[in-house]
Design goal:
Elements (H helix, E strand, L loop, with lengths): L2 H21 L12 H12 L9 H4 L2 H16 L1 H11 L6 H11 L7 H48 L18 H15 L2 H13 L5 H25 L11 H13 L16 H13 L12 H15 L6 E2 L2 E2 L2 H28 L7 H12 L14 H16 L1 H8 L19
Antiparallel strand pairs: 1-2
Helix pairs in contact: 1-2, 1-4, 1-6, 1-17, 2-4, 2-16, 4-5, 4-7, 5-6, 7-8, 7-9, 9-10, 10-11, 10-12, 12-15, 13-14, 14-15, 14-16, 15-16
């Protein structure tokens, strides 16, 4: 039982338990047993913090069902190993080396030093951020829904946003609050903080308190994320400003506000303040690119991660300039990291292409275009949750393929392969080097 297998099987265990809890009559508004596929789809989407749903969770599930859903989101956002380890810490259990190695794999850390301190910071950051977010949202929701209902709506959306889940109790997600500064603002901040990763939050906290130099990982994550948020905002505004179904009817300030939110939410939250199904083709393509890139390592989001893209871009730049070394912020990147980035990209593209092909077969008799199917698969793989509106219309087989895509996207292609294959062994035979034509 390697750390990779422990994590993969742990996620399957939580998904199975969540399915059983969401299956019962206590979890639905009608007090009837739920459809097994619906329960499995929702549980997988919650644990994988995706947000895709075949039902309207706000009207389909009872209060108890919504609480179960939110607990699954919290466990999925923290990660199986992180959640279990925090529970063991609360019970006073001592850390074993095996536990530290599993946490190292789960958080994509380079070593096991400082794991306990990072876990304490994860718990503190989660509680503080979700509490502050809930209080700000409550100040808005209580005026419309009263104190009790408003508080539950605030807690649900705060936890869902910080864990980049994208589940909403409103049938139109956050479209009704499109121009609400407090709602859109706090949801955006929670998405960004949850997506940049706990190691980065820890690094920034120590820099703020003690002015310690930040790591290369933090520099890469922060600068790449800022670039994607700002460029994404400008691109969305440019292609959707004249679309009357999305931004065209809004004033200029409202267009920028909505474009900003839609540049943040594909990384990888799934809330929306505009109708995704009515976006232009160019807007959908831009959204898919952002969803595929996703969040950052050690965070609550999916995708191939910002650091992977940064390494690949710098490696490409080095090759085009005829350089043998890949340099980022005056630091040379080791070849093994470049190989890993290439493997993540190729593996992720392979998963997306295979799933789109399978969906095109199962949905051949449905009135779905290829772009809508590709969008659904990329959203599931990136654990985003945005959809053009075809999720509930998928066939039985199509829903199962999306479930599998969400699972693979959450645990990661490399971690899944490490769980399937045996432990890597060093090569004992070295062969002569030879070149051939490439490109």
């Amino acid at each position: 039982m390697t750390p990779a297998r422990t994590i993969c099987l742990g996620f399957l265990l939580v998904i199975s338990m969540g399915m059983l809890l969401l299956l019962g009559p206590w979890a639905t508004q009608t007090h009837q047993w739920s459809d097994p596929v619906t329960a499995l789809f929702t549980a997988t989407s919650a644990v994988c913090v995706t947000g895709l749903s075949v039902v309207d969770v706000g009207t389909y599930y009872s209060l108890l069902g919504q609480i179960i859903l939110l607990l699954l989101v919290q466990i999925g956002g923290l990660g199986y190993m992180t959640s279990m380890t925090l529970l063991f810490m609360a019970l006073g259990r001592r850390f074993r080396l095996k536990d530290k190695l599993a946490i190292q794999h789960a958080l994509d850390q380079s070593g096991i030093g400082g794991i306990q301190g990072l876990l304490r910071l994860i718990l503190a950051a989660t509680v503080v951020m979700e509490t502050i977010g809930a209080l700000v949202l409550w100040s808005v929701f209580r005026r419309e829904y009263g104190w009790g209902r408003g508080l539950w709506l605030a807690i649900f959306h705060s936890v869902s946003a910080f864990n980049n889940a994208g589940f909403s109790l409103f049938p139109d997600s956050l479209m009704r609050y499109q121009q609400s500064g407090p709602v859109v603002g706090v949801i955006s901040v929670l998405i960004m903080l949850g997506g940049i990763g706990y190691p980065v939050l820890s690094d920034l906290w120590h820099w703020f308190r003690r002015r310690q130099p930040v790591s290369l990982n933090t520099k890469v994550v922060v600068t790449t994320s800022l670039f994607l948020w700002l460029v994404g905002t400008l691109l969305f505004w440019a292609v959707e400003a004249r679309n009357p179904a999305t931004l065209g009817q809004l004033p200029f300030s409202g267009q920028l506000w909505a474009a900003w939110f839609h540049a943040v939410t594909p990384r990888t939250a799934g809330f929306n303040t505009i109708d995704v199904g009515k976006m232009t083709v160019t807007g959908l393509v831009i959204t898919m690119v952002l969803m595929f890139i996703g969040a950052s390592p050690g965070g609550t989001g999916g995708g191939i991660k910002t650091t992977t893209v940064r390494v690949l871009v710098r490696a490409t730049r080095a090759i085009l300039r005829g350089h043998d070394e890949v340099i980022i912020y005056e630091r040379e990147i080791p070849p093994v990291l470049i190989y890993k980035a290439i493997a993540v990209l190729i593996g992720s593209l392979g998963v997306v292409m295979v799933m789109v092909t399978l969906l095109s077969l199962t949905e051949a008799n449905q009135d779905h275009g290829f772009l809508a199917l590709l969008f659904e698969v990329v959203s599931a793989f990136g654990t985003v949750g945005l959809s053009t509106g075809i999720t509930s219309q998928l066939t039985f087989s199509g829903k199962l393929f999306i479930i599998l895509t969400m699972y693979v996207g959450r645990i990661g292609v490399l971690l899944l392969m490490a769980a399937i294959v045996s432990e890597p062994r060093p090569l004992r035979t070295h062969y002569p080097e030879e070149t051939f034509l490439v490109g």
